[in-house]
Amino acid sequence: MAWSSGDPGRLNFQEVQDCLAQMSDADLRRAERIADFLARGLTGLKGEDLLQEACVKLLSGERRFPRDVYPLKVLKSVMHSEASNARKGARASPIDMRVPVPEDSADRRSPEVAILAAEQFRALIATCSGDPDAELVVLAWADGLKGVEAQEATGLADRTFDAARKRATRKLAGFEPPGAAP
């Protein structure tokens, strides 16, 4: 709703701007505390965001600023309404915003990519089947281990590990992962 010039019961843009600018520091702190309280439990919306949104709604004329009503009361009413709308929107959303999203990019794979990776890993291990030492080396490599760390993880002796490493390298040189482009 835009500004209507014919409504004597509401302040016009300049009056709203003046009223908000003339609020005392104490009233502004109260408004901030009220906003913080109303924003509790809202995902992605802090108290300062809620207060800012209320001021924008009042200044744009989207929300009414009645004459002869204390500005803090008007702000509280608008913030309460905005918080309520945000809660209703969150409940209606198909995405549950309360569920934490992992920060690790490896966990952001789509199900299709995860299935393809699992198939490729099984095919990689199958390439080394029949050679348990080479399979141990490949598993250590899959865990990101190299050199001495990989040898310690496999539990193989130096010469046995070196021979298994060479066999695994030869077997993997011709490895063609399933789903790879021809």
Offer a quick outline of the entry:
With 182 residues, this protein is mainly α. Helix content is 61%, strand content 0%.
Number of self-contained structural domains? 2
Q: What is the number of strand segments?
A: 0
Give the overall shape, derived from the CA principal axes: rod-shaped
Helix percentage: 55-70%
Order of helices and strands: HHHHHHHH
The largest β sheet comes out as: none
Mean pLDDT: 82
Tally of DSSP helical segments:
8
* Share of β-strand residues: under 5%
Distance between the termini: 60 Å
The low-confidence parts are none
Can you walk me through this structure?
The chain has helices at residues 13-21, 25-38, 47-60, 71-92, 111-127, 132-142, 147-154, 158-173. The two termini are 60 Å apart. With 182 residues, it is mainly α. It folds into two domains: 13-92; 108-172. Helix 1 (13-21) runs antiparallel to helix 3 (47-60), helix 2 packs across helix 3 and helix 2 runs parallel beside helix 4. The radius of gyration is 32 Å and the shape is rod-shaped. The longest helix has 22 residues, at 71-92.
